[in-house]
Every structure is written in structure tokens, then in C-alpha cells.
Amino acid sequence: MIGRLRGTVAEIGEEDALIDVMGVGYVVRCGSRTLSRLPPVGEETVLHIETQWSEQAGMRLYGFPTRDERRTFLILKEIQGVGPKAALAVLDVLSPAELAAAAGRQDKAAVARAQGVGPKLAVRIVTELKDKALTDLPVSAFVPAGETPTPTPAPSAAGEAVAALMGLGVTEPQARRVVEAAAARLDEDVQPAALIKAALQELGR
């Protein structure tokens, strides 16, 4: 079983990347956030790998930038109704630490932002994850019943703009690129609405 790959990025697609390891190309399925953060083609990368096998699809490799993300992927897949695609989608919108905090708050809305995850599945995810430690974070990442949760910071203007563009069907890597380009032209304290408008202008160029 393959647990880690260290090699050169040969190709980056919409759902996977081709990693060249000593002349052998491995097709690795990744979430859009992981794909957007890979180094450019021709540069070296390291991915933590989860190997899955099925009679229909054969062997598939799923890649993650950290061990925590790989571990969280496995925990998510143990939940009824959560397949690899849904697990990757959750990790696209929430890091393991953010998912742990959302589970502690029973914040189903945060999980439901993942593409393909409906309200019912989001409820099941936060319910089943509440008592699980997703990362090596302190136990305080989870909020015990009866205690007041620590308020989470409001989403940044860039984060809201990326989410808005993704809601319009723009892929996350492209959304992040145009939002970053738009933000570079505007003030640091720009409001989300103005940043979204500027990002749409960048998208139309």
C-alpha cells in the first residue's frame, strides 16, 4: 500500500494530479484546495496518500498535504453516506481543525457548504464527529455540551468572495486566482461586495 509520494508534479487536472516518481507517473485524486496549492508543474512535492481499492474502479490514490487531512478523510469515510468525493469536498471548505470546531459547535451549516453535501448529511457528519478527535489539537477544540462555544472569526472578504464565485460555478483554484488579483488592486479593508464585483471583472478579462 502506498502511504506517501515524493516526486515531481507532471500535470495538474481538475480532480487529480500526475506525480512523477523516478519515471513512474502516479495519478492522485485530490481536493480542489490541495490541487490549487500544489507547486507548479516541474517542481517537487510531497503528498500523503490513502490507497483505496474497489472491483469497479480498481486502485485509486487520494492525496493530502498533511497527515491530519489524510486521517480526517478516513474518519469522514466511516460515516454512512460519505464517500471519497464528499469527504474531499468537506476538506475543501474546512481544514481538520475547522471541522473539529464545527463538530463541537454542531455547526451543520459550515459542513453543508461542501459541494454535494446536503443538510441531512451535514447533520449526520457533525453529530458523528462530535466525540471524535480529528487532529492532535487540544480537547478544547471541541465544545462540551452545556458550555458556551468560543466565537469564531468572521469570514474574510477574500473567503466570502471565493465562496460566492464558487456558488456561480467557478472552480476554487480559478476563484482564488481572480480574487487575489482583484484584492491586489483594492484597499486591505475592502468590503466583500466590492471584492466580489472586482473579482468578476477579473474573471471577464
Commentary on this structure:
The longest helix is centred in the last third of the chain and has 14 residues, at 172-185. This protein folds into three domains: 4-64, OB fold (Dihydrolipoamide Acetyltransferase, E2P); 67-141, Orthogonal Bundle (DNA polymerase, domain 1), CATH 1.10.150; 157-203, Helicase, Ruva Protein, domain 3 (Orthogonal Bundle), CATH 1.10.8. The chain has a five-stranded mixed β-barrel with strand order 1-2-3-5-4. The protein has nine helices and five strands. By secondary structure, the chain is α+β, with helices and mostly antiparallel strands. Strand 1 and strand 2 form a beta hairpin. The N and C termini lie far apart (45 Å). Residues 135-155 have low confidence and may be disordered. The protein is 43% helix and 19% strand. The protein has helices at 32-36, 67-77, 84-93, 96-105, 108-112, 119-129, 157-167, 172-185, 192-203, and strands spanning 4-12, 16-21, 24-29, 44-54, 58-64. Helix 2 crosses helix 3, helix 4 (96-105) packs across helix 6 and helix 8 crosses helix 9 (192-203).
What's the arrangement of secondary structure elements?
Elements: E1 4-12, E2 16-21, E3 24-29, H1 32-36, E4 44-54, E5 58-64, H2 67-77, H3 84-93, H4 96-105, H5 108-112, H6 119-129, H7 157-167, H8 172-185, H9 192-203
Parallel strand pairs: 3-5
Antiparallel strand pairs: 1-2, 1-4, 2-3, 4-5
Helix pairs in contact: 2-3, 4-6, 7-8, 7-9, 8-9
